[in-house]
Amino acid sequence: MNQTSQFHALGLDVGTSRIVIASRAEDSFRYESQLNAFVAIPYSKITEGVLEREKVPHTVKAGQIIVHGNESEKFAGLLNAETRRPMTAGVLDAKEPDSLAMIREILATMLNGHQSDRKKKVCFTVPAPPLGAEGSLTYHEATVRQILTDLNYEPTGINEGLAIVYSELESSNYTGIGISLGGGLCNVCLAYLSVPIISFSIPKAGDYIDTNAAAVTGERANRIRLTKEDSFHFNGFFADKVHQVLGVYYDDMIRSLVTALKEAFTRTSSLPKFNRPIPMVLSGGTALPPGFRDRFEKLLWEQEFPIAVSDIRLAQNPLHATAKGALVCALSDS
Amino acid sequence: MARISILEPPVSALELRAGQIADPVERLRFLRQEMRPKARLAKVTARSHRRAGWLAAGLAALVVLVPVPTGSAETLARERLLVSPDTTNPAIMLEPAPRVWLVDRSGSSELYSNGLRIDLRYAVSNRPRRQFPIFSTGGVRQGEGNAPVGIVYHTTESNLAPFEEKENRRLQVSGRSSIEVVRQERAYHYQIDRFGRVFRVVQESDAANHAGASVWADSRGVYVNLNDSFLGVSLEGQTSAAEATTPAQIASAKVLTEMLRSRYAIPAGNCVTHAQVSVNPQNMHIGDHTDWAGKFPYAGVGLPDNYAIPLASLYVFGFTYDSVFLRVTGTRWRGLDLAELWVARQAAAEGAETGKYRSVLRRRYKDIEVALKEEQGEEVVK
Hints:
The complex is a heterodimer.
Chain A: H1 3-6, E1 9-14, E2 18-25, E3 28-35, E4 38-42, H2 45-53, E5 58-61, E6 64-68, H3 71-78, E7 87-88, E8 91-92, H4 99-111, E9 120-126, H5 138-150, E10 153-159, H6 160-168, E11 176-181, E12 186-192, E13 195-202, H7 206-217, H8 221-231, H9 241-267, E14 278-283, H10 292-301, E15 309-314, H11 321-333
Parallel strand pairs in A: 1-9, 9-10, 11-14, 14-15
Antiparallel strand pairs in A: 1-2, 2-3, 4-6, 5-6, 7-8, 11-12, 12-13
Helix pairs in contact in A: 4-5, 6-11, 7-8, 7-9, 9-10
Chain B: H1 2-7, H2 11-19, H3 24-35, H4 39-64, H5 73-83, H6 90-93, E1 102-105, E2 109-112, E3 117-119, E4 132-135, E5 141-145, E6 150-155, H7 168-185, E7 190-192, E8 198-200, E9 215-218, E10 221-224, E11 230-235, H8 247-264, E12 271-273, H9 274-277, E13 279-280, E14 285-286, H10 312-315, H11 323-329, H12 334-349, H13 354-376
Parallel strand pairs in B: 3-8, 6-11, 6-12, 7-11
Antiparallel strand pairs in B: 1-2, 2-3, 4-5, 7-8, 9-10, 13-14
Helix pairs in contact in B: 4-13, 5-12, 12-13
């Protein structure tokens, strides 16, 4: 591989809840991550000065300061408000008036440190269409592509599930099933020797769990998410209601995913005849709770699955695997 | 029995080849390239169509009608078969390159860690090695190389004295005169005389005039006219008298091969004989030169039986051979059978008669030949 090309390629995971950039640093990968969220706070000169001094990413707009990225959550907590998000269910949120401006700001801030004289290749993730629907992803993909082009990058899109395959399934020559369990969607891709064969998504993922658990418990979705990330696990009994409800909705999401996998692979007439069982990789923030893999495996084996699966594993780094796969794709294009 | 194995899906071979690529990015690049929809074939065929009238037009139409992959792995594998057969026996690709390093260098010789000693007294320069093109199996230029990727073994086809003690003087004289000729012609990078002495003739940084019109392929692509891409190693001897090759020559060829493979990371499958790579563009036959058309001591040189590798000249460019060539080879190479079978399969997959399909492949070669001539100007053709 051309040494310089290594440093002129980026992987970009544009997720509903997080945006992650992967880059190559000598023999390793480097990641930067920001929440794909923002919060508006009332404008004051003092606040703006503090934010500038502390290098908190923000913009001033229409008498408000909009804090975006990782810091937005802290400010939302201080103001007892929900963060807003540019994206929902894996794509730009048509109902959020500031979605375009905000995702542009977040991407510009994150990519700022990666500028160089030479135009860099950036491979960004796009979700697969929802199973059973031919929902158009063109607007989302074209918009992200345009933003990246405006920022002087050379963008190409990659299916999110395929990025998992490229990140994690080198040992099986990029044959297997990659599943990205993110905030808005679960993205699935079955790949055969690097070629995507079947891709789809289901709209039940982390946000589905948070929103429904919040509705049942009366908590804010932000708080539910923090609880989920901090202390939820599958191997045990919880006395408190939040954890119990999280367990219920997690199970619901996993069952939906397993059913969708079975349905998609069963109804595909041109399913490849693999000469050996293939691996399945789970990735994304929603797959992080301890015991998730075991629970998923148990529910999968309860079904009569149409493909022989050799093993079900968690990605080495579930939060960064998608971005890494996108980077590997960009590098292989260089 | 050998033919049965190739009728099975080629996936395992492709996977094995991919498995040899340690770098995950390079492996992905290789697989994506191999599995890519073969629009290239359509492009090349369409070009042929412009030149060859209705016949090629019909074939081009057939090729264009090959569907773009729609998500079926079987479809993809089938389409890959159309233009991208296995170029190597997986077992060959598994052969690791040994690590060899320079231990000492004096004005007249070099000593290497595996015992190889190279005599430098006859070393000369020639024109510097040019960057050489690498083509896809569809005939499209897909990259360039500038370091040697293989070795071509030759024979001097010079007069041989009996290898006996009483013939010492003749043996020495014929060896020396042979090297003088090779030096004058800039014919090879290395020559091994019958005592097993290794002489550097043309500097490795330069091209030697050793391969002429020639074709070979590996997992990276197809190489055409190998003077720049392959190193030439000649053993003093004759193809028709392979048994006269001395154990000392074979031992030296082994350590020299180890050193070159180590230095340039040359795959074992790219260490082949001149007869395997040589082509005659005038009559579109292979084996224009027949050096080591048979009995090359692959095992003795530490290599797998590379006669089993399918010839890219046949399956990529539609070359053929005649009975004379087969007589020279002695035992028929397995690589010939495999390459023939690939051509037949490709033709069948496109619904074309083999002869017509081969003519499309040949135009592919002619296009490249013209392009290379335009690019490089006149070149010494051995």
